[in-house]
Amino acid sequence: MLLRLVIKDVVIINHLELDFSAGLSTLTGETGAGKSILLDSLQLALGGRADTGLIRSGQQQASVTAVFHPRGLSEQLDALGLVPDDDDELRLRRVLNADGKSRAYINDTPVSARVLRDLGNELVEIQGQFEQHGLLAPSRHRSVLDSFARLQPLASTVAKAYEEWQDGAQRLADEQAKLEKDRQEQDYLEHVAKELADAAPKEGEHDELAEQRQRLQHAEKLAEYLQEALNILQADVGVERLIHQALRVLGRSPDLLQRQIEPSLAALERAADLIADALGQIEMLASEQNGDPYELERVAERLFLLKDLARKHDCDPNTLPEIQARLEDQLGAIEQADETLQRLSLEVADLKQRYDDLADQLSEKRRKAAAKLDRAITNELAPLKLERAKVETRIQPLEPAHWGPQGKEGVQFLVAMNQGEALGPIGKVASGGELSRFLLALKVVLAAVNPVPTLVFDEVDSGLGGATADAVGERLDRLAQHLQLLTITHSPQVAARARTHYHVAKASKKGKTETQVRHLSDDQRVEEIARMLSGSKITEEARAAAHALLEASAA
Questions:
Q1: In degrees, to the nearest 5, what angle opens at C-alpha 420 toward C-alphas 418 and 421?
Q2: Helix, strand, coil percentages in the chain from 3-state DSSP, rounded to 5
Q3: In sequence order, which residues have a C-beta less than 8 Å from that of residue 116 and are 6 or more positions away?
Q4: What is the mean pLDDT of residues 280-301?
Q5: What is the CA 252 to chain-centroid distance, rounded?
Q6: What sign does the dihedral 261-264-268-274 (CA atoms) show?
Q7: Beta strand pairing status for 454-458 and 484-488?
Q8: 336 secondary structure, DSSP code
Q9: How far is it, in rounded angstroms, from Cα 1 to Cα 70?
Q10: How far is it, in rounded angstroms, from Cα 195 to Cα 224?
Q11: Does residue 231 register a pLDDT over 80?
């Protein structure tokens, strides 16, 4: 709901602050007093076109701030990273410079004019904007009908079913494309898979072979060292023979000396045993080095094979088993592809059938709701002096190629303003006054489901009087029971219905003309409505009529 409008240096407005309340508010005044300037200012704050002609003469910039209660906008504000002020107010501000540049703010946070406009469209709907954003746009007619019939939950379910169907169809298409590509490469895949299967690489095999090859490459040199050591130890004067000779010599010593040399004998005997063990180990190692002379060649060939395969597959040799398993899985998938495609096809068929069923339900409900909407609008037209008008909410079935998340049909509001005329789009067959009254009737019918909290009508009663003007006022009053409604009017019947009444007038101040707006008291309202009834000269009869209008409106 619009709480306050602050205007500075716009056309003939110096500085103006207006507070608004819920229900129906009206602005009256002589033609040219500046009522349209207020509307232009509000549009500027809502992200409308920045026209330097709005800047007051002699000033370098103009600014407008519109303050709202942000009820129901938490999701939009969260998406923008904004939160209302502590006093639960949402401020939309626009500053227009003389060089044509403008700046936009939401709660003092700089934003683009597009963001300001998008949020403004959620807050206020102005009659002059219908062509772009409102009920004249055919793209909105389907959602308007759904709102009227409270079909949004079913429409959301249809949209989700369509998305699931399309996702399934995309998965099937992707799988078919993949299969086609795989089948084109199947011969190659089978070749490389067989090549890997024949090689049968094992996990960690490459590193083990590399280590084994390194050992085998040094085996010949090691055999030479071992043989040389054996020759030394086994020579005619080898260590072992010398120790045994020493033992024999010491063994011939007299018994009297045996106790003294016993430790030496024991040490020599241990040395002989250790040398015998060493000889055995060296002989065993030497025999191992004289094994299969072709083993190094076989290891090298195996390493070359693994490295060659790794180059072909652009991978580490140790990951060849993983490559082999992946190729086998891919070939297995190709073999099972027909079964997979059949399963996906059945899934997509089920998803499409679900969409069909839900969309058909939505179509039927829309057809029934369209007839109800037409009757409801028609009932509102006669009192608005549009009794000859005919309205039709046309449900147009779409070709299957154009089905979408919104369903299987398009929706368009068509109207013929006079008997015998062909039905056509609202904005093309109705005059300005007829259009305003038609949209008022539609808004009254949609009041309970209207998502925008504030509506503005600019002279919806233009050219009307008597019972028709009273019918317009009665419908505006009824509409204002559901939302905040602002109207600029020259009709006393409409002005009398307002909960809040503002008077717009020009005044001369310091040699300059300025627009001034004042909130009228009850007595002042009587005078203003009497002026609207009788003109510049207010008679007692006009005052009495004004009293009667106000009393009738309050009843």
A1: 65
A2: 60, 15, 25
A3: 46, 47, 92, 94, 104, 105, 106
A4: 72
A5: 107
A6: positive
A7: parallel
A8: T
A9: 7
A10: 41
A11: no
- Strands (DSSP E) found in 475-519: 484-488, 500-509, 512-519
The answer to whether residues 13 and 21 touch, using CB atoms and an 8 Å cutoff, is no
Q: Are 12 and 37 in contact (CB under 8 A)?
A: yes
Paired sense of beta strands 109-111 and 124-126, if any: unpaired
CA dihedral 277, 283, 288, 291 (to 10 degrees): -160
Q: Is 537 exposed, middle or buried (0-12, 13-18, 19+ CB in 10 A)?
A: exposed
Mapped onto helix, strand or coil, the DSSP state of residue 66 is strand
Question: What tokens does 384 get?
Answer: 């608005």
Name the DSSP letter for residue 224.
H
Q: Per the structure block, which two tokens stand in for 115?
A: 């963001």
456 in Cβ contact with 487 (< 8 Å): yes
| Number of CB atoms found within 10 A of residue 338's CB | 10
Percent of the chain past pLDDT 70, that is, above it, reads: 90
Query: Quick check: 27 and 504 in contact, CB under 8 A?
Result: yes
Structure tokens at 359: 């969309």
Question: Who's near 121: CB < 8 A, 6+ residues apart?
Answer: 46, 133, 452
Amino acid, single-letter form, for residue 308: D
> Within 13 A of 444's CA, how many CA atoms are on the CB side?
23
Name the pTM for this structure. 0.63
- The structural domains of the chain, ordered by start, are 1-133+491-519 (3.40.50.300), 186-335 (no CATH), 521-555 (no CATH)
Phi, psi of 517 (to 5 degrees): -130, 130
Q: What are the CA-CA distances from residue 227 to residues 215, 284, 286, 384 (Å)? A: 18, 11, 7, 123
Q: Are 389 and 417 in contact (CB under 8 A)?
A: yes
Task: Specify the higher pLDDT residue, 431 or 27.
Answer: 27
**Helix, coil or strand: residue 29:** coil
- 398: which 2 tokens? 């779409």
Cα gap 128→141, rounded to integer Å: 18
> What b-and-e string marks burial along 118-151, b requiring 16 or more CB atoms within 10 Å of the CB?
ebbbbbbbbbbbbeeebbbeeebbbebbbbbbeb
Q: Are 362 and 158 in contact (CB under 8 A)?
A: yes
Which tokens hold the place of 274? Answer: 């250790």
| Spatial distance between the Cα atoms of 67 and 124, rounded to a whole number of angstroms | 12
Greatest mean pLDDT range, 189-203, 404-418, 449-463? 404-418
